Amino acid sequence: MFRSVAGGTPGGRSQGRVVGEPRSARPYAHPVPSYRVRVVPGVLHRGVDPAAVLPAAIEAAGERTTVEAGTVEVVRGEPRITVRYEALDDQTASDVGRAVVARVGELVVVETSRVTRRSGARWYPMR
After folding, report:
1. Which is deepest, 21, 55, 58, 61, by most CB within 10 Å?
2. Against a cut of 0.85, is the pTM above it?
3. Where is this region: Disordered (predicted)?
4. Largest Cα–Cα distance in the chain?
């Protein structure tokens, strides 16, 4: 489930308020770190529709936290599924990442996966 965000600044940056939601109803008192899990999928399991993989990954994360975005890209000839989400701490983020990888693994062979945490404009691997 994606949430529409309002309250952007003139530079186009979002302040993270959900449309129609009063500021006091925001679930966190402080900014919540952003994480992402990237999965490089391999061969599809028999009978799996390729279009079902990204929605399944987003749903797996969405059952546990707020999903910020989900994309499929082709990088250097390899497909890559990315799900970006919020989590209160690194342990929760790791749990969400494992759930996404497990769900994707039911549909395709997972070649590699990695959970990263955003710090400023950069993404750093979880330890």
Report:
1. 61
2. no
3. 1-30
4. 49
